[in-house]
Write a structure and sequence with these properties.
75% helix, mainly alpha, globular, 10 helices, disordered C terminus
């Protein structure tokens, strides 16, 4: 039971709001030492896990790159480009992103977009800039625009990924049904995921357009030009 000390370290570290990465590393080190491993053996286990899970290294490459782009004015450039488009609205931008997210997820390209990669640096600022063209925004409305941007990404990837038959969720369903005597081909599940994805697009698309109408009703009256 002594190796479970790592769980206590995680609970205590998160309760004290320490850096999550530092807490996890300390918890792993504590569990490893409690299990009789030396510091070098624990470090070797970290290295092995890092090499076996290549996507971890991709995160370390992408996040600094996004940080540099944001520091160089990526969000400001995105806002400026959208403000110049009078026909752009928050709802239209998010509907277009929803469609693109579903189509790419249906092809298995799940990591091509996401909250860190696209929503925070691009989609949310663009939607916020479009909403500013529609109405005067208070902090609550700005938070609603950001929430809609995040929700659009969630809906797009969640209902789009099941169309790709090699995705983990489809394989999990196939394996579960097979264990219970029901033989189902992954392709069949993928095909039947298409109507669900279309329904999700229509429902969330309607929500976005209604949100557009809500923003338009908040438009402040423009002062009349004086002679």
């Amino acid at each position: 039971m002594l190796p479970l000390i790592g769980v206590g370290v995680i609970v205590l570290g998160f309760a004290l709001r320490f850096n999550p990465l530092l807490v996890v590393v300390c918890a792993a080190m504590a569990s490893g030492l409690a299990a009789g491993l030396g510091p070098l053996e624990v470090l070797a286990a970290f290295g092995k896990a890092f090499n076996q899970n290549r996507y971890v290294s991709i995160v370390w490459v992408i996040l600094p790159a996004i940080g540099v782009l944001e520091r160089s004015g990526l969000q400001e450039r995105a806002r400026t480009a959208i403000r110049a488009m009078t026909a752009a609205t928050a709802g239209r931008i998010l509907v277009a992103y929803l469609l693109a997210r579903q189509l790419t997820a249906a092809l298995g390209l799940i990591s091509i977009a996401g909250h860190a990669q696209t929503v925070r640096p691009l989609v949310a600022p663009m939607s916020e800039a479009a909403a500013e063209n529609q109405a005067e925004l208070d902090e609550t409305t700005r938070d609603e625009v950001k929430a809609m941007s995040a929700a659009t990404d969630n809906v797009g990837v969640f209902f789009g990924e099941d169309i790709f038959m090699a995705i983990g969720s489809i394989l999990l369903i196939v394996g579960f049904l097979d264990q219970n005597g029901l033989i189902v081909e992954p392709l069949h599940l993928s095909v039947w995921a298409i109507p669900t994805a279309i329904a999700a697009f229509l429902v969330h698309g309607a929500r976005l357009l209604l949100f557009d109408r809500k923003l338009s009703k908040r438009r402040a009256p423009r002062p009349e030009a004086t002679a």
